[in-house]
Amino acid sequence: MEKLVYLNGEFVTKAEAKISVFDHGFLYGDGIFEGIRVYHGRIFKCKEHLDRLYESAKTIMLNIGISKAEMEEVLCSTLRKNDLDNGYIRLVVSRGVGDLGLDPNNCAGASIICIADQIKIYPQEMYEHGLEVKTVAVRRTNPDSLSPRVKSLNYLNNIMAKIESIQAGVVEAIMLTQEGYVVEGTADNIFIFRRGALLTPPLSAGCLEGVTRNAVIELAKKKGLEVREELFNRHDVYNADECFLTGTAAELIPVVKADGRVIGEGQPGEIFKNLLEDFRALTLVDGVLIKEG
């Protein structure tokens, strides 16, 4: 079955899914996006993803042009067209077609693209045995320059860090703030379990407010774990009992080595395993059912 892409109100084939070279999303990275998981016929955390999308749009003064309810139907329709009950959605909203200048007021209107497919960013053995990360020199964009709570199309900061991690022989990096605190990976939030508490950097450090991150925080609190959003550095990571990453594409994945230091026992820990089990259970019941059109 050939994949169909939603493009500004129409469904077209992958080969036909094209945008103008004058689209400001292409020219300037002027736009926003969401990556969303689909499990067992449910769009996982659909409300949370759409809330984040529309908040991002408001911050950058981008008029999406349709309501959240209409956007939810775009997601459902795209999944139905592709007969997909389990997979990944990439929802993109750009400023739209304009001229070669920066002024967004010269754009005719937002472009909306919705892609439904599969995604796998880490091999299965890394989920079973853990992965290694390395700290990169590329620092996370200062939140005073661009709010990390805007999930924008401009991912060059993350891409440069990803390139550096690949050159170092690992698949993921630890990115630091300008002050040297741990903030996140190139595409994932980071958690450590240390001295009886689960820690993750606060949003003020410059990390994305991850939907999976928030879900894990809620699950951990329900288990009675102490969860703290606070600053920590590489020393804390090296000496943690456990470390793991979270993200829509990555889900939950354990980290067993950082900058050559073995973390904990050098294997996925019990806190991680228990949270992963709870997360899997959550995906069975949380989310918007793909409605019939």
TrEMBL record:
One of its GO terms (cellular component) is cytosol. One of its GO terms (biological process) is L-leucine biosynthetic process. The keyword Zinc does not apply. Its cofactor is pyridoxal 5'-phosphate. One of its GO terms (molecular function) is L-isoleucine-2-oxoglutarate transaminase activity. Gene3D superfamilies: 3.30.470.10, D-amino Acid Aminotransferase, subunit A, domain 2. Pathway: Amino-acid biosynthesis; L-isoleucine biosynthesis; L-isoleucine from 2-oxobutanoate: step 4/4; Amino-acid biosynthesis; L-leucine biosynthesis; L-leucine from 3-methyl-2-oxobutanoate: step 4/4; Amino-acid biosynthesis; L-valine biosynthesis; L-valine from pyruvate: step 4/4. It is an enzyme of class 2 (transferase). It catalyses: L-leucine + 2-oxoglutarate = 4-methyl-2-oxopentanoate + L-glutamate; L-valine + 2-oxoglutarate = 3-methyl-2-oxobutanoate + L-glutamate; L-isoleucine + 2-oxoglutarate = (S)-3-methyl-2-oxopentanoate + L-glutamate. It comes from the Bacteria. The keyword Transferase applies. Keywords: Amino-acid biosynthesis, Aminotransferase, Branched-chain amino acid biosynthesis, Pyridoxal phosphate, Transferase. Its EC number is 2.6.1.42. It holds the Pfam family Aminotran_4. Acts on leucine, isoleucine and valine. Belongs to the class-IV pyridoxal-phosphate-dependent aminotransferase family. This is Branched-chain-amino-acid aminotransferase. It comes from Desulfitobacterium dehalogenans (strain ATCC 51507 / DSM 9161 / JW/IU-DC1).
